[in-house]
Amino acid sequence: MVRMMGWEAPKLGLRKGPWTPEEDKLLAEYVSLHGEGRWSSVARSTGLNRSGKSCRLRWVNYLRPGLKRGHITPQEEGIIIELHALWGNKWSTIARYLPGRTDNDIKNYWRTHFKKREKSSLKQQKRKAQILKLKLQQQQKEKPDKKDETKTEEAGDHGKANSQAVEITDQTSQEMVFMYPTPEDQCLSQEPDFYAADTASWIDQYYLVDEGLWGGWWSLDHDDQPAGFCNKFAMQNQENTGYYNYFGGDASNGGYIF
DNA sequence: AACCACTACAACCGCTCATCA
DNA sequence: TTGATGAGCGGTTGTAGTGGT
Length: 258
Fold this sequence. Notes:
Blueprint (H helix, E strand, L loop, with lengths): L20 H14 L5 H7 L5 H12 L10 H14 L3 H5 L7 H39 L2 H6 L1 H5 L1 H19 L7 H7 L4 H13 L6 H6 L8 H15 L2 H4 L11
This protein binds a DNA duplex through helix 3 and helix 6.
């Protein structure tokens, strides 16, 4: 006997809640005979006491042949991250590039894995900003001898740059909300560069480069990255993918690279 | 062993869009 | 042109399973 798991009472006699193996069998038989579509007639034809909507969902998310079960692989995760950056919550669009995965799978995965990071990364950004601010202050203190030499300069560009750096850092710490680990995080933590290495293979595999994939990558709120970081990252990808030329340019612009 | 927090997954709901009479 | 209907999509909710304390 199947528990009803707290689903609300069925309206108009239609069954709700978990599907039984018998129902699955009826639905699968119907689809094999008539093909996908005309979901509203499934109930009439098969005697299933389910709405057409429910039948479609069950087929698409569970019964359809070729569906993958089990955990999302790191490669698939890379695709999800990149495509979400491009298209946002267009789960069905993203799912088209992940054979065997449904929009529901991806939606669930994103929700459980990245929504929580959104919260924690905000804290992380504030912490980083704090550290950077302290470092800058320390650097300023450690240059008292140069202070006299550059007194006039300090009033000019250099001094401005330093104070601006602190100011921008404060601002971005409050405004930036990353939904997943940024490439900057990867660089700072010295962890293996998953993004640079793994994404290369799946780009080749799915031929998405022409869709501006790397443009999407660089549009991930990274326009505040230091030029050095961008160069490093672009060069890594040149080695791994050979697509450096595709970026078409100067990584030192600190942001969008097309 | 019991409790709690978290993740994975299944399924529903409301809304929008496309099609057709 | 418009209204009805079906299909699809994104958001949300609820339960089972699992691991940590």
